[in-house]
Every structure is written in structure tokens, then in C-alpha cells.
Amino acid sequence: ETCAVNNGGCDRTCKDTATGVRCSCPVGFTLQPDGKTCKDIDECLVNNGGCDHFCRNTVGSFECSCQKGYKLLTDERTCQDIDECSFERTCDHTCINYPGSFECLCHKGYTLYGLTHCGDIDECSISNGSCDFGCLNTMGSYECVCPPGKKLHWNKKDCVEMMKCLPNAKPTPKAQLVCSKTGGIESCFLSCPSNTLFVPDSENSYTLSCGVPMQHGKAQPRRNSTLPSCSDSLAPPIKQKARFKIKDAKCHLRPRSKEKTKDSGKQAVSDNCQVTFVNLKCDSSKKKRRGRKSPSKEVSYITAEFEVEMKSEEVSDTCNIDCVRKRMEQKLQTAIKTLRKSINKQQFYIQFSGTEYEVAQKPAKATEGHEACSTGQVLRDGKCVTCSTGTFYSGEHKQCVPCSPGTYQDTEGQLTCEPCPSNDGQGVAGARNISDCGGKLNSIIKDLRQCSPGHYSSDGFKPCTVCPLGTYQPEPGRTLCFPCGGGLVTKYEGAVSFQDCETKVHCSPGHYYNSTTHRCIRCPVGTYQPEFGQNYCITCPGNTSTDFDGSTNVTHCKNQHCGGELGDYTGYIESPNYPGDYPANVECIWNINPPPKRRILIVVPEIFLPIEDECGDVLVMRKSASPTSITTYETCQTYERPIAFTSRSRKLWIQFKSNEGNSGKGFQVPYVTYDEDYQQLIEDIVRDGRLYASENHQEILKDKKLIKALFDVLAHPQNYFKYTAQESKEMFPRSFIKLLRSKVSRFLRPYK
């Protein structure tokens, strides 16, 4: 025998030896006992071929692949979990990665739709937010509102008669204007123990109010401030307004230096005027002197409003109400005169939480050292941050300090905390509103348990009354029960849901019961209802809607917006609501118009268009809107195998249309524009079947991080040098690098 005749009878390699021919087989095959035939080795039979997950035998070799949610590493054996949370745009809010999977979560007040997106819940569409009167939806939350003359109950749902005052409450401390004279110099300070509000209007102006403005016989509390004790005022309060001018000073509320405070320790003559309400407005403006070449001078104006309450105990036999009024007016006028003198000499201070503040300062003083932020703000990580609720700005410590037990603060950037009603100094530090207050109020709330669902009382606490027949209450701590409506009765007293009302018909999901017509009505488009026997439909979250009426699940709510980002170098197009199912009867148009001398490369990693409805949903890419223009790509089917291709035209007009039939996940298609000098090379690569032959290569075209790196280099070739040779080896399998290297070498050979 000789290899020259019929290859010596060998299947593959033949070699002539002294004793005759010797046959051999290539790697991946084994020589059979006949010494001639080569048989493929099934590597998967031994230790799964060394593959972590799946092993597929091929002729002369084998191929490893991974479960969904994992990717094959460059050793082409090991499978590693894909961290979907590391990709851009995976989840709208919070992303949690699991082995082989991931989950999207939404912030409170939002709900998930389209698998990864978060939309605001319209709580007002769910039984009017369980509000007694009106409901106002806000982003991530909602508010119940009340008609004039009523206010929200502490449960934030019910409306109750507005209390004008607390009958047995301990009166809140009043503001005091104290003026004194030492060595012929008048100085005044205003102490604000409660009901203060600091509002920085601009860099050089602010408004400060202290106390509660009065109307005859009642007080008007601001924001959520403590209700005053019931006033025994006999007549309207005494009101006076004054305007003061300070030269060469800016409106900056800054802590007074400790040295100055020590110097003012000895006071000879002092006058004390108790005021009910003070409102100060400080405003700085530059005023130029005419006819002189002098620099602009700072001039600040303080507008002050004072209110003083008249009380019954001050009226006597010798001084009637008019006499008392006259005395009070004179006293207030005298105090304002002294105040004017003290302001002129910059000797007017305001006291909050034991710290005295200067009302206005000379420019040189205002720019000293630490004063980088406005009053009420502190410097954190190089940024000015406003002191949050539950804290106040301490001028002494120059930082935000939590409210002490027995006080609270419900407004940002304030200089003091408000005393709690019935304050006994107990409770938690850092209280953010009056309901967080410690002391007796808190202990009473703890002792009195709320009414349970199906019950109510005038204040929401026990003892409670059971909801009568024909009414229901699903929540604890309420002051009313909701009627079934339409003359319907409940199966029993103490009902906790509308489903306990004995309706004439039982409504299935996707419907709501109309108590007027006693019929089941299909949920309108844009709403859904997943439960049986309800009397409302839930509005779809965010800007989503349903394809049809009668929807039963939030998954039927779809975003109608055509997605994508179109850039000059890279970008992507995305079907509406991706990765959730796209809506019915939608049309999207995208236009990709690259810069001069650039062409378009597109990768379709996967596309899901159901074929059951005879090509009703179509994605088409062509040169223009004209049906006869050059078409690059068109499909109405699902393809899970990726494909890459270059555009047949320099510009691309892309259209996606869906009909009323079946829906699917749709697509997210990235693209890159590249220098047209590389046209021959790019086409050579994407048209080579080896790019798609193995599952490993297919997964590269589906890997968002790898595609991003490839597109980065295609768009800007100089960025190739960002990636080291080692990084490239760790990113791509050897077979892929080998394929690209051969193509690039052949393309560049003419230039060598």
C-alpha cells in the first residue's frame, strides 16, 4: 500500500512508512480499530466537556453554552452571572441582581409596569384615596383636601370642624421686644420663643415673622403651627407699622459675636414690651450718590409690623378699654422710637434658641471666614445644604442641631424649634411635626387605641361605634363610615369593604359596580381592576394606558412613547413600553442622519414580533418614507438569533407599526456610524457566516457591554488604545479575536 493510491485507504492523514501506510486523525477524532477510519470524539460524554452548563458536540469539536441570564467567559468553559443592574437603563428606580436574573423595584407611591418601568400611582382613583372630601394626586403620593371651614384630621383623611384654639392649652410664650440704655446708647433685642418663620427671599433680603397674627377674638395659625390658647381679647389688636433705614449694611442675619454679648451684660434702664406678632422684612439695595464719583453704598431697609393684644385683666375701674388701648399704643410707639435709635447705631438683635443674631451687617463683617452659606444652611461636601425638618440652624455652633425633646420643626432652614403643646419636655429629639411631639399629647395617643376597621368615632379613638348597615370602613382610626350608595345594605354591621355591600350583580375583574344603575361597567381605557366586586377602576400609572377597555391587570398598562436616543455616532431605537409588550395601533418613526462621510452599522440582538396575525406588526428600515426607496431591513417575525448589517443607504428612515392583534416584547436595536473608509472591512466582517456560527459569537452581539465597547472603537478608532491587549482577551473569546484579526490584517495589508 502507498499513500499515493486512494490516500492509502485512510479517512484523513496518510503517511508512508517502511512497514506500509500509517493513518492518523486530526484533533477531535479517534482512529478506529481498522486503522483507517476516523470517528468524531463526543467530548461532552466525559465530565460534560468541562462546561459549566451545557455542552454541544460538533464534528471534530464541541461547544459550551450557558443558561439564560449567564454569559460564557473567554475560557469558553465557565459561565458567569450577567449583572443586568450594571447596564444603563435596566430599571427606572431600584435594580436587584439575582443569579441568572434580576428584579426591578419602585419607590413608595410608584408601581411597576413594562417589567422595568415605574409610574406614579394615582391613589385618588382608588376609592378617592379613602378621603372624606377631595383627593389631590401628587408624584409618588397624594393629599386629602377639605372644604372651607374644615381641616384635615390627624389621620390625614377625614375632615373635621376647624378648631380656633385649644380651650385648656397652656398659652404659648409671647414675643418680647426689650430695649435698654447703657452709657447713652440704646440697644434692643427681640426674643422669639415660638411660632417663628424665617424665609430667605434672596441673597440680600429675608422675611422673619414671630408670633401669631390676631383677628378680633381669634388667632390665625400659620402652616402647621401650634394652636394658640383661646384668646380673651376684648377688642381688635393694636397694629403699628414702621420703616427703618440702615446705612452701609447688608441684610445678613448672622450670629452676634460673644465679645459683644459680654460687653452688653450691664444694662441700666430697660423697657419690656410684650407683642403678639412681629413681621420683619429686611431688604438691601445699592444706592448711587448723584454727581460724585464715589463707590456704591449699601443701604438696607427694615419694614416692621407689630401687633399687641389687649386683654381683659388690664381693664379696671380707673382705666376703661379706651384708656387701656391708649396706654398700649403709647407704649408701643415709645418702643418703636427706641428701636429706631438702636437700629441707627446697629444695636438691634433677634434672639432664637439662646443665640442673638445681628439683623444687618457691614459688608466687611458679612464676608468673614466661615460665612460661605446663607443663614439656615451649612456646608457639606462643598455644597450649601439647608437644615432639614426636625432640626434648626444653631448660629452658636454653626451647624444643624436636632430639635430637643418637647419641641418640633416642620419647615426647612429655620433658626429655632417650636414648643409642643402641653410641653413637659418629654418625647423624641428631632420631631418633624406636631404629631411627633412628645409629652402628654404623645402619651394620650399611645394610651387611646384607634378604632379598628368597620368602626368609627368622633376622633378616631376608642370608644368606637360599629359601622351601621349600608356602610363600611376599611381603615383604622377613622371618624366616619362610607355609604354603599344606591340604597344598598351590607350583609352585617361593621363591614370593612364595598365587597360586603349586597350588590344586585357580582362584578368580575375588569369591571366596576355602578351604584346608580346597579350594573357592572367595563373599566374605561387607561384603567384596570384586578379584583371581583369593586366599585372603582384604578388609573394606569404614569403616562401609560391600556389597549382596550375592561383591563384586569397593571401589566395591560403600556407606555405609548416611541423609545430611543439618536446620536451622530451611536444610538438606539426601542419599541414603546420595552421590555414590556408594545401597545396596539402604534406607529413610530425614527430618522438616522449621520454626519458627512459616515455610514450606519446596525445590530439587531433579538426581536419579538408575533407572526400569528399575518404580519400585522412590522419593523422596516429604508432610505426614505417612500415605499419604493432602497430597503435595508424588514421583518414581521420573532428572531432570537442576532444579526448585524450595514445600511444600504447613507440615511435611514425607520418605521414600526402594530395592529390590534397580538403583541410582543418588541426590540431594542443599537446602531453606530463609522468612517466610510472602513466600509469594505465592516461589510466583510458582518457578512461572514462565522460571526454567527457559534453560540459564543451570537452572545457577543447580545452582550450590551461588549457591543458598547465595539461601537466605541468603530465610532472613534483612536479609542482602541483605551483597551489593553489583556482587556481585549478578557472581553472576547479567542475565536472572535482570531476572526477579526484576520479580517483587519487583510484590509490593512495594502498599507504595509
Automatic annotation (TrEMBL):
Predominant subcellular localization, coarse grouping: secreted
CDD domains linked to this entry: CUB, EGF_CA
**Where does the record place it?**
Secreted
Which ranges are annotated Polar residues under compositional bias?
A: 222-232
Q: GO MF terms on file?
A: calcium ion binding
Start and end of every EGF-like domain?
40-80, 81-119
Q: Where is the CUB domain?
A: 562-674
Mention any Pfam family matching this sequence: CUB
Could you tell me which SMART domains the record lists for this protein? CUB, EGF, EGF_CA, Ephrin_rec_like
A single Gene Ontology CC annotation of this entry is: extracellular space
Q: Which UniProt keywords apply?
A: Calcium, Disulfide bond, EGF-like domain, Glycoprotein, Repeat, Secreted, Signal
Coiled-coil spans are none
According to the lineage, what is the superkingdom?
Eukaryota
| Chain positions covered by the region annotation Disordered | 216-235
Where in the chain are disulfide-linked cysteines found? C85-C95
The cross-references to InterPro entries, in alphabetical order and at most eight, read:
CUB_dom, EGF, EGF-like_Ca-bd_dom, EGF-type_Asp/Asn_hydroxyl_site, EGF_Ca-bd_CS, Growth_fac_rcpt_cys_sf, NOTCH1_EGF-like, SCUB_EGF-like_domain
* Keyword Secreted appears in the UniProt entry: yes
Q: What is one Gene Ontology biological process annotated in the Swiss-Prot or TrEMBL record?
A: signal transduction
- Can you say what this protein is called? SCUB1 protein
Q: Which organism is it from?
A: Emberiza fucata
